[in-house]
């Protein structure tokens, strides 16, 4: 009789725990989503993303976008969309906080300068008139100063030349915009520069091909840090059907 009573109590407790399970929207920086909780699985009524069990609070990743005058719009706008949906804190940084012009059309106001930019888990550079940053010793020195505290470095398109100038791509396998492969090989004689790769991950460095390939690279990082389901949900939310998980090259490091 006692065993039966204990079994009934355990069943009751487990049932109560299951019914009390809390579900949340994955961090997406939505105006309402990130503060809501739900008692049942399903989709968030605000953003449509699949709800997940609230087993622990996910630390928001801090991402630094380094921009400059003449930057390519889609180079940074695509990854911005991905990391925003992933719930990351994104800092827009330039040498100063003076207005920038992306492709001579879009005005961008940086939030931070290199004097007060916060630390970041992920640091990203982009293409366009990349010489503005790559040939600026003050900017390169600042990027180098961030190496010890940055978890991942990422470049989109010819943003690879900026990371290369800082020495971050030395002895790495990397890629860049298809028209700049040979120039990057000349700039990085100690690195392996590959063509026809959507993105290349080598250690804590992720480089992508040109323009829209930055979206693939950002989704790959989200998959790596947040899981496959989170990345797939973001791709679906963006209606981006070009991303094929595993399509890029991941360089296996030797133990």
What is shown here, in short?
This protein has 255 residues and is of the alpha/beta class.
Description of the molecule:
- The protein is α/β, with parallel strands linked by helices and about 260 residues long.
- Helix 2 links the parallel strand 4 and strand 5 (about 90-95).
- The chain has helices at about 1-20, 75-85, 130-135, 135-145, 160-165, 180-185, 215-225, 230-235; strands spanning about 25, 35-40, 50-55, 60-65, 90-95, 100, 105-110, 120-125, 150-155, 175, 190-195, 200, 205-210, 250.
- It has eight helices and 14 strands.
- The strands form four sheets. Strands 5-4-8-9-13-12-14 form a seven-stranded mixed beta sheet. It has a three-stranded antiparallel beta sheet with strand order 2-1-3, with no helix packed on it.
Write the layout of secondary structure elements.
Layout: H1 2-19, E1 23-24, E2 37-38, E3 52-53, E4 62-66, H2 73-85, E5 89-93, E6 100-102, E7 106-108, E8 122-125, H3 131-134, H4 137-145, E9 152-155, H5 160-165, E10 173-174, H6 181-187, E11 192-193, E12 199-202, E13 205-208, H7 213-226, H8 228-237, E14 249-251
Parallel strand pairs: 4-5, 4-8, 8-9, 9-13, 10-11, 12-14
Antiparallel strand pairs: 1-2, 1-3, 6-7, 12-13
Helix pairs in contact: 2-7, 7-8
